[in-house]
Amino acid sequence: MALTKCPVFAVVLSTFLTTFNRGDAKVCHIMESCILPCSFKPGDDAVIHWIEDPSKTPVHSYYHNQDQLAHQGPRYIGRTSLFKDQISRGNASLLLRRTEVQDKGTYKCYTSTITGNRESFINIDVEAPVREVNIQKKENIITCSSEGIYPKPKLTWSTNPPSNVTNKEELETVQQIYNIKSSLVSDSVALDYTCTISNGRRARTASWYKPTSINVSNTETTIPCKATDPPRTRLVWTFNQSQIILNQTGDSPYTASETWEKLVKAVLESGDLTLQYLSSDHDGMYTCEQSNDEETRITNSILRIENSSGNPALIAGIVVELQYYKTLFKNWRI
């Protein structure tokens, strides 16, 4: 749609000096809403045109006190709106919903009132940041993956202690959005693995720590968890990589599963887990997964419950009973 199709626009353009503002930049997240800012000097008979530059595709138009969308570009239908209650105050900002990769580019905001007109330009860049990195180990294969990323991500591995690792990487795209996955063969059980995925602006890491063995001879113990820097956003404890013991989100109280509710005595600030009333049925692998906004740490502990030398309650009962018979025998002799 040529702008001259709007009579009000044509008259204003020929009468008033246009003020230009070029060079502002904005980063929008894919599939989220994004506000493209634009302001003007308030006045009567407001005209607003948002235009994709340099294609001249109409994005959103407003005049005669209402939206004028008959010539709106097909890609923008149902995705744009103005803040109409703020137009009288000079706000011509555009709300763009469900941001797409194709929205990347330059946009022109043209505003006009009886007091003058103005053009401003804004450069839009789009991204889908790395929000979560999953790392898991099955037998001797350790895998790191993440989905829904833009622009093209990069994945790197590191180990502690340092070692040479060879990985197989898979990269796929769905509507220009990237999914990335990398696997490597773990030849040593004595290594900690860290995977980092970045896409330029943001990086996230996930670490998998080698299992440690814990032998206990009583029915209560505390299992360690590698703490992340605060604030912690998520904590999950599992048993044998299948049973959920508990989970916790942010500062909310933890929620234990019905099976483990009576066995969980406490969750420490560090994420360490204290269990009670343990038996040989609870031998196995305990995994702590702790996350914040930048990283995930997975700690594994192998717990072995050793037979106690005696049940404290049973021993106490025997002592009391022996004392009873000792007193009875003494009285009988008298």
UniProtKB/TrEMBL annotation:
CDD domains listed in its UniProt record: Ig
Residue ranges annotated for the Ig-like domain, each copy included: 7-125, 142-207, 222-299
Compartment(s) where it occurs, according to its Swiss-Prot or TrEMBL record: Cell membrane
Keywords: Cell membrane, Disulfide bond, Glycoprotein, Immunoglobulin domain, Membrane, Receptor, Signal, Transmembrane, Transmembrane helix
Presence of the UniProt keyword Cell membrane in the record: yes
Topology term for the membrane: Single-pass type I membrane protein
Gene Ontology BP term (one): cellular response to lipopolysaccharide
Signal peptide: 1-25
Pfam families: C2-set_3, V-set
Protein's name according to its UniProt entry: CD276 antigen-like protein
Species this chain originates from: Larimichthys crocea
Lineage of source species: Eukaryota, Metazoa, Chordata, Craniata, Vertebrata
